Amino acid sequence: MLEPLIRANIGRLQTVYDRLPSPARTLLTSARGWFLSRIRYSPEAFSFLKHLRAHEAWTPDDISSFQIRSLQEIVSHARAAAPYYANYPQIEIRNFDSLRLLPVLTRETVRENRAHLLSRDVPPRQRIIAGTTGTTGGNLKVAYTEKLARENWAFLLRQWAWAGVKPRQPRVTLFGARVVPITRTTPPYWTHNLPERQILLSIFHLSQKTAADYLKFLHEHRGTVLEGFPSVLSILADFALSRGETIPMRAVFTSGEPLYPAAREKIESAFQAAVFDSYGMTEYCGLIQQCEKGEMHLAPEYGYLEILDANNAPVAADEEGYFVWTGFLNRAMPLVRYRIGDRGRWKLGTPCQCGRAFPRVTPTITRESEILHCADGRIFSPRALNQYLKGATSLRFCQFVHDRAERVVVRAVAGSDLAALEMMKIREELQHLLGGSMRVTAEIASEPLVFPGGKIPLIVNRVEQ
Ligand SMILES: [Zn+2]
């Protein structure tokens, strides 16, 4: 298999990729896009999408009986296939209350028992591995399957349909891929994925100096779909609005971090389009997506959601609590009653005007963070820096403290013996990203820095702007 080889050598391949001329990068990005689009736009994905669209007519009773059935299936699969669940009590899940007889898994427990949570039914060569840094910067390696990648894409296409966007409609993407070399100082800051009619823009080259290039590019692609991390789109919106410009786009999709009301307002006004936000996770155990009426709906076919208090008891009505997910789709690493660390509340009251009976949930904004402004004018969103944590598995927390105009401290809380080594690697890579105008140092700390209200920011900014 080529894929494990590529994954094992990703650092070296990135160096090779960075040295290629722009057309060759487009060719490689498109080749990868071709593989992905075979999964994303396969007949199976479209048939799954068709089912998903039919489910939009479900009544609350339809939703409950589907979820009970799916819980029975995934719990018995977990018990039979993953050693961790072998000793779980033999209960029959007749209703949602019986699920509560099973323990709640914390993120720490999943990290520590990862190997035993992998399903024996899915051979290692069929596992796709992804790293997630979650809310706190502590890394977790998650396994999933190609089938799940396909199904997950169908959920995304369902939300596109809510926005009136068709599959393969041209789009401009600003997620975490390193699509052009860090050292590049002239356009293009983008590369093309031709099979998907997608252009990937770098989130690592945003700067007051490059703002005009980014805006010119967006003007040339006005009317297309725009997707990306909220903090990144918010930086772009600032570029436009501060110059008194607006760039009408078809629709905007955000995910990967919380969307603050102020950021939504800026993005909608700069790009003259509605923002469709979504909340998901690399563990692939749950999904919440915004509909065309602006409400956040649970995708009932994706996973079962409980909102629990600190003692794992259900919260009262619409009180805030912890999200505890039981994913229906991930057969490679089933997660039953997984407390991911994020919080939110049910939204009760009159049904949504969109007509769907899918329950509504409001995720709480927990990942408050700041933006890094470098001395040379470059601007990095929390998600840009977060990409540098994905390889590390030994850190409980990792934060970036901008404490002097020209210095950033990588501040890590160790989870195992490898921590110092991984922290120094992050320091080195971040130094490469930030370049000569900044100095990056590193330190091990015993606890993370916490903002008022208990939020643990990725970037802490102590420099007067
Ligand atoms: Zn709705």
Topology of helices and strands:
Blueprint: H1 2-8, H2 10-19, H3 22-40, H4 43-54, H5 60-81, H6 96-99, E1 105-106, H7 107-112, H8 114-117, E2 128-132, E3 140-144, H9 146-162, E4 171-174, E5 190-193, E6 198-201, H10 211-220, E7 225-228, H11 230-242, E8 251-254, H12 261-271, E9 275-279, E10 288-290, E11 296-298, E12 303-308, E13 321-327, E14 338-347, E15 360-363, E16 372-373, E17 379-380, H13 382-386, E18 395-404, E19 407-414, H14 419-434, E20 439-445, E21 459-461
Parallel strand pairs: 1-14, 4-6, 4-7, 7-8, 8-9, 18-21, 19-20
Antiparallel strand pairs: 2-3, 5-6, 9-10, 10-11, 12-13, 13-14, 14-15, 16-17, 18-19
Helix pairs in contact: 4-9, 11-12
The chain binds zinc ion.
Top keywords for this entry?
Rossmann fold, alpha/beta, 465 residues, single chain, 21 strands, GMP Synthetase, Chain A, domain 3, globular, five-stranded mixed beta sheet, binds zinc ion, 22% strand
Write up this protein.
The chain has 465 residues and is α/β, with parallel strands linked by helices. The chain folds into three domains: 2-40 and 164-273, 3-Layer(aba) Sandwich (Rossmann fold); 43-153 and 279-363, Rossmann fold (3-Layer(aba) Sandwich); 372-461, GMP Synthetase, Chain A, domain 3 (2-Layer Sandwich), CATH 3.30.300.30. Helices cover 34% and strands 22% of the residues. The chain contains 14 helices and 21 strands. It has helices at residues 2-8, 10-19, 22-40, 43-54, 60-81, 96-99, 107-112, 114-117, 146-162, 211-220, 230-242, 261-271, 382-386, 419-434, and strands at 105-106, 128-132, 140-144, 171-174, 190-193, 198-201, 225-228, 251-254, 275-279, 288-290, 296-298, 303-308, 321-327, 338-347, 360-363, 372-373, 379-380, 395-404, 407-414, 439-445, 459-461. The chain has an eight-stranded mixed β-sheet. Strands 1, 12, 13, 14 and 15 form a five-stranded mixed β-sheet that branches. Strands 20-19-18-21 form a four-stranded mixed β-sheet, covered by helices on one side. Strand 2 (128-132) and strand 3 form a beta hairpin. Helix 4 (43-54) crosses helix 9 (146-162) and helix 11 (230-242) crosses helix 12. The model has no long low-confidence stretch (mean pLDDT 90). The structure holds zinc ion (ZN). The site of zinc ion has 7 residues, from loops.
